[in-house]
Amino acid sequence: MTKETKKRDLIYLFFLILVIVGLPFGIRAYDRYLEPDALDSGTQEFTLTGHAQKGWVLGEVQANDIISLWQDEGPAAKPVIEVSKGDQVMLKLRSADVTHGFSLKAYGIYIAKAIQPGKTAYVSFKADRTGTFIFRCNVFCGNVHHHMEGKLVVKDETARPNA
Ligand SMILES: [Cu+2]
Asked: Tell me: the pLDDT tens digits for 14-36?
């Protein structure tokens, strides 16, 4: 082994250690980057969990909930999310099983294949249009896929007749 190759091996080793040591930090930094931390108090937060047999379930689904969800027959009631016009809305989208997607056409929101088990996809928007809007899953995920939808109701609280 020449001196040159030894030196090169050391450099490779150095980079290898750098990658192994640095990776967890990088992942954590990336997670922090994905999770919008500084939410102002006016933000309305909702968690929607996609479930291949139930559709969208409002709230966090824990491991033991999944078992009881599987035991029930048929899809769950479609969730309804109610906010006021002007609200900042934050949706945390999770999956209890397979990869799902999310679309809220009225607000131009499309997320494809980003909702995977163990991950959270964040959607943030200002509810500046009043009305009732349908959101759905846009990734074919099983036999209730077409049922996998819910409603976003944006109410105009300020629209009261002036006396
Ligand atoms: Cu789905």
From this structure: 988 988 888 878 777 776 666 66
Give the pLDDT confidence score for residue 163 in this predicted structure: 47
pTM for the full model?
0.69
What is the whole-number distance in angstroms between the Cα of residue 113 and the centre of ligand 1? 9
Instruction: Please tell me the predicted confidence (pLDDT) of residue 162.
Output: 55
- Domain range summary for the chain, segments of one domain joined by +: 1-34, 43-155
User: Residues with Cβ within 5 Å of ion ligand 1?
Assistant: 50, 100, 137, 141, 148
- pLDDT of 127 reads 95
Round to the nearest angstrom and report the end-to-end CA distance of the chain.
93
Q: E-strand spans in 1-155?
A: 43-51, 55-58, 80-84, 88-95, 100-104, 109-115, 121-126, 131-136, 149-155
Distance 146 CA to ligand 1 centre (A): 8
- Homologous superfamily (CATH) of 43-155 is Cupredoxins -  blue copper proteins (2.60.40.420)
